[in-house]
Amino acid sequence: MESNKVLDAKGLACPMPIVKTKKEMATLQVGEVLEVHATDKGSKSDLTAWAKSGGHEMLKDVEENGVFKFWIKKAK
Protein backbone atom coordinates (compact mmCIF):
# COMPACT_ATOMS: atom_id res chain seq x y z
CA MET A 1 0.00 0.00 0.00
CA GLU A 2 1.24 3.49 -0.84
CA SER A 3 2.22 5.87 1.95
CA ASN A 4 3.57 9.41 2.02
CA LYS A 5 5.75 8.83 5.08
CA VAL A 6 6.93 5.87 7.18
CA LEU A 7 7.28 6.06 10.96
CA ASP A 8 9.51 3.48 12.64
CA ALA A 9 8.13 3.00 16.18
CA LYS A 10 9.59 -0.49 16.62
CA GLY A 11 10.91 -1.21 20.10
CA LEU A 12 8.87 1.56 21.70
CA ALA A 13 6.40 0.86 24.50
CA CYS A 14 3.04 2.54 25.04
CA PRO A 15 2.38 5.43 24.81
CA MET A 16 5.36 6.33 22.59
CA PRO A 17 4.03 4.85 19.31
CA ILE A 18 0.95 7.09 19.63
CA VAL A 19 2.98 10.13 20.69
CA LYS A 20 5.28 9.75 17.67
CA THR A 21 2.35 8.99 15.33
CA LYS A 22 0.55 12.14 16.47
CA LYS A 23 3.69 14.23 15.91
CA GLU A 24 4.30 12.78 12.41
CA MET A 25 0.63 13.12 11.46
CA ALA A 26 0.88 16.86 12.14
CA THR A 27 3.47 17.13 9.34
CA LEU A 28 1.18 15.58 6.71
CA GLN A 29 -1.41 17.22 4.49
CA VAL A 30 -5.07 16.17 4.60
CA GLY A 31 -5.51 12.98 2.56
CA GLU A 32 -1.89 11.84 2.91
CA VAL A 33 -1.08 8.45 4.42
CA LEU A 34 1.27 7.67 7.30
CA GLU A 35 2.65 4.13 7.52
CA VAL A 36 3.52 3.16 11.11
CA HIS A 37 5.66 0.16 12.10
CA ALA A 38 5.43 -0.90 15.75
CA THR A 39 6.27 -3.95 17.87
CA ASP A 40 4.18 -3.09 20.95
CA LYS A 41 1.27 -5.57 21.08
CA GLY A 42 -1.05 -2.83 22.36
CA SER A 43 -0.39 -0.75 19.25
CA LYS A 44 -3.24 -2.29 17.27
CA SER A 45 -5.97 -1.28 19.72
CA ASP A 46 -4.22 1.96 20.70
CA LEU A 47 -3.62 3.28 17.18
CA THR A 48 -7.03 2.16 15.95
CA ALA A 49 -8.73 4.04 18.81
CA TRP A 50 -6.45 7.07 18.36
CA ALA A 51 -7.17 7.27 14.62
CA LYS A 52 -10.92 7.00 15.20
CA SER A 53 -10.94 9.63 17.96
CA GLY A 54 -8.95 12.01 15.75
CA GLY A 55 -11.24 11.46 12.78
CA HIS A 56 -8.47 9.79 10.76
CA GLU A 57 -9.04 6.68 8.67
CA MET A 58 -7.26 3.39 9.44
CA LEU A 59 -6.88 2.10 5.89
CA LYS A 60 -5.15 -1.17 6.69
CA ASP A 61 -3.24 -3.00 9.39
CA VAL A 62 -1.18 -6.18 9.17
CA GLU A 63 1.25 -8.14 11.31
CA GLU A 64 4.45 -9.45 9.76
CA ASN A 65 7.02 -11.31 11.87
CA GLY A 66 6.04 -9.53 15.08
CA VAL A 67 5.90 -6.09 13.45
CA PHE A 68 2.52 -4.40 13.31
CA LYS A 69 2.08 -2.15 10.27
CA PHE A 70 -0.63 0.47 10.00
CA TRP A 71 -1.67 2.82 7.21
CA ILE A 72 -3.51 5.86 8.53
CA LYS A 73 -5.04 8.49 6.25
CA LYS A 74 -5.04 12.03 7.63
CA ALA A 75 -8.53 13.47 7.79
CA LYS A 76 -8.04 17.01 9.13
Describe the structure.
This protein has 76 residues and is an alpha+beta fold. The protein has one domain (5-73): TusA-like domain (Translation Initiation Factor IF3, 2-Layer Sandwich), CATH 3.30.110.40. Helix content is 28%, strand content 34%. It has helices spanning 16-25, 43-53, and strands at residues 5-9, 33-38, 57-64, 67-73. A hairpin with a 2-residue loop joins strand 3 and strand 4. The model has no long low-confidence stretch (mean pLDDT 96).
Kindly report the CATH topology.
Translation Initiation Factor IF3
CATH architecture, by name, is 2-Layer Sandwich
The level 1 CATH classification is Alpha Beta
Shape: globular
Main β-sheet, spatial strand arrangement: 1-2-4-3
Number of strands: 4
Query: What summary fits the major beta sheet?
Result: 4 strands, mixed
Give the name of the CATH superfamily: TusA-like domain
What Rg do the Cα atoms give?
11 Å
Q: Strand pairing plus helix content: what structural class? A: alpha+beta
Helix content percent band: 25-40%
Mean pLDDT figure: 96
InterPro entries: TusA-like, TusA-like_sf
Domain UPF0033: 7-31
Protein name: Sulfurtransferase TusA family protein
Pfam families: TusA
